[in-house]
């Protein structure tokens, strides 16, 4: 696939590579979703996972925030558990709850039952990425996957969990099952990213949202080797890799070393604390997602501080410090996008 010069020189890809674009690129995690009336309209009566398996809906929903905000990148509309659903794991995404797994994973036999993912499991992904890349032109499309720890948490707990107690009980108490499960999920994540990049995605993000539940030593021993394998496989595809987690103040260095080109920083860690930890890598973040509920001038003042702090990084991609909150007023995100893009870097 030939990549156009305009796409290659987009502000997003330049910042991801550690070059200095004309403005700080901006996109928002969960920019497609319930904060958009046009999203709620096309999703009416259609389940979340069903939407994620329909190429036409994926394409429409992915484009909605690009049209509305003019953000510097699109993120593929899917979910971290979609590849598991696609290979046949019995799970659902319940509104207001999140992913729920019918038969949580406990044993080596449970792990062995989960098939590896091939492109044949996800023809709708290939189709949607191709149509998106054609529509997006010079706007990059970010593909994504869930990192092994975060996906394992849903599979082992059976649903969302605050303390990840069952997951960590397996990690500490059944190392053989843990290793097999992390390898299986990591293989699925790597294959899922490859399908997206082969079809034309120009960057990938690995979401390890719940990694902040771990001490650095436990992360390094039990989780990092598996994420490193996924990021190494993505590295073979020659696209920038973003690695993001929540509550990861103590893990940012390790998350960079796992093989990221860009380390995603949540809003709790100021960028001037994060940047020295990640060293010669770019950073992404990190406005507190609740600041959209503050007066516009307060939100923009904070955004200005984050852009200024980001200058010390090898490259900086502006984002929220976690996903868009569903009750967010899209007009605030529009103002935020215009502010970031209008703030000269040179
Ligand atoms: O960022 C984007 O715009 C792309 C789409 C995207 C979704 N999920 C769509 C979605 C992405 C990147 C994800 C990743 C994801 N899914 C993560 C990692 C990112 C993060 O937020 O930390 C996690 C942990 C999940 C699991 C998951 N799926 C949760 C916790 C929920 C929310 C449950 C709820 O209803 O509050 C989901 C469902 C989900 N995934 C929705 C969307 C738009 C909402 C479902 C709906 O609209 O009906």
Structure in words:
Helix 15 (296-310) links the parallel strand 8 and strand 9 (316-320). The model has no long low-confidence stretch (mean pLDDT 97). The protein is built from 16 helices and nine strands. The protein has one domain (5-342): TIM Barrel (Alpha-Beta Barrel), CATH 3.20.20.210. The chain has helices at residues 5-8, 11-16, 37-43, 48-51, 55-69, 82-87, 108-113, 123-136, 148-157, 165-173, 175-198, 216-235, 252-257, 271-278, 296-310, 330-341, and strands at residues 74-75, 91-94, 98-101, 141-146, 203-207, 241-244, 262-264, 282-287, 316-320. A seven-stranded parallel β-sheet has the order 1-4-5-6-7-8-9. A two-stranded antiparallel ribbon has the order 2-3. The structure holds coproporphyrinogen III. Coproporphyrinogen III (CP3) is lined by residues 29-34, 48, 75, 77, 79-80, 93, 95-99, 144, 150, 207, 209, 323.
User: Tell me about the biggest sheet?
Assistant: 7 strands, parallel
Query: What does the overall shape look like?
Result: globular
CATH-level-2 architecture: Alpha-Beta Barrel
Strand order of the largest sheet: 1-4-5-6-7-8-9
- CATH C-level class: Alpha Beta
Identify the quaternary structure here.
single chain
Please tell me how large the radius of gyration is: 19 Å
Q: How many alpha or pi helices?
A: 16
CATH topology-level fold name:
TIM Barrel
Give average pLDDT, whole number: 97
Instruction: Count every beta strand, where a strand is a DSSP E run of 2 or more residues.
Output: 9
Helix coverage percent? 40-55%
What hetero molecules are bound to the protein chains? Answer: coproporphyrinogen III
**Structure classification:** alpha/beta
Order of helices and strands: HHHHHEHEEHHEHHHEHEHEHEHEH
Q: How large a portion of the residues is in β-strands, by DSSP E? A: 5-15%
Low-confidence stretches: none
